[in-house]
């Protein structure tokens, strides 16, 4: 039988209410969360709920509701609506955000409490979201169509060659590989050619990011770059030629980052990679070497010595250089004031920021910004 105390705690994690329905579908109790969602449509999910496993429905907006049958009490436990991929606001409707992984844990805890049996995370979604017979039938149909019509796909060895060049940071090799590629049509993944092109772009950029990580690029940096390239394509580009050009730029960007790492000789050192990940993730904080050392499990002195050996620059200077690099982007592409940029990069003062910036670039931040905008 569902534990009311547990339900009261779960509503705080969900961000919305949990409802208890009788076996014949009458609302008996609401355990209120921060957001009280409408009960409209909740009865219909009860009608479709099996009694041996949690039942989840999720729409195209990522809005999910779940119903669980409590055999002991003879009641249904139904979670209010949440959005699994961000807060939802539309037409005066607000639905709270509960990240998919967190939502998964909540439903599994609820099911364990009610049934006494556990379930796997993948099992939960596989039984609710993936129509096994339907997708199997569709795959079989498309394989048959390919065999009948010889629908072409990307030349796989060509893809491997490009990804290997990115992994090695071989910019020249990547260019040669692209130049050698023939004109090959791709298989169809959607109803329209632009969407097809975008789908292929997402695949290539994701593969390029992972190849770059294998080559030594910080996984945080790689994923941020990946997200940025894909967002640009999804939101701003609507012609195939522009999408294809954007994909090539992304591939070269990843290859260049790996090339720069290889030139310093630190790409095979896990400790140095961890340090770079830490600096990248905390670039807007006041980064303290002792805190980095603690996060990677070594002493500050050992960390500083190893970093200097592999990178050829003191860790403190590397941190400053990365902050200056970040400030260069802000000066080029934003309207933030020098004071705001200084604070965003966690320099102790604007004057200290200007001194470090001039040492690296030979000009003050204000002159750097003017020079860039004139160009």
Strand content: 5-15%
Helix % is: 55-70%
Outline type: globular
Side by side, the strands of the main sheet go 2-1-5-4-3
First-last Cα distance: 70 Å
Give the ordered list of helices and strands.
HEEHEEEEEHHHHHHHHHHHHHHH
Report the structural category: alpha+beta
Largest β sheet strand count, sense and barrel closure: 5 strands, antiparallel
Mean pLDDT over all positions: 84
Number of strands: 7
Low-confidence stretches: none
Supply Rg. 27 Å
The number of helical elements comes to: 17
How would you describe this structure to a colleague?
By secondary structure, the chain is an alpha+beta fold. The chain is built from 17 helices and seven strands. It has helices at about 5-15, 40-45, 100-115, 120-130, 130-150, 155-170, 170-180, 195-215, 220-235, 240-265, 270-280, 290-295, 300-310, 315-335, 340-345, 350-360, 365-375, and strands spanning about 20, 25-30, 55-60, 65-70, 75-85, 90, 95. A five-stranded antiparallel β-sheet has the order 2-1-5-4-3. The chain has a two-stranded antiparallel sheet with strand order 6-7. A hairpin with a 4-residue loop joins strand 1 (about 20) and strand 2 (about 25-30). The protein is globular.
Features:
375 residues; alpha+beta; five-stranded antiparallel β-sheet; two-stranded antiparallel ribbon; 17 helices; 7 strands
Note the topology:
Blueprint: H1 4-14, E1 18-22, E2 27-31, H2 42-47, E3 55-58, E4 63-70, E5 75-83, E6 88-90, E7 93-95, H3 100-115, H4 121-128, H5 132-149, H6 156-168, H7 171-180, H8 193-214, H9 219-236, H10 240-264, H11 270-281, H12 289-296, H13 300-311, H14 315-333, H15 338-344, H16 350-361, H17 365-374
Antiparallel strand pairs: 1-2, 1-5, 3-4, 4-5, 6-7
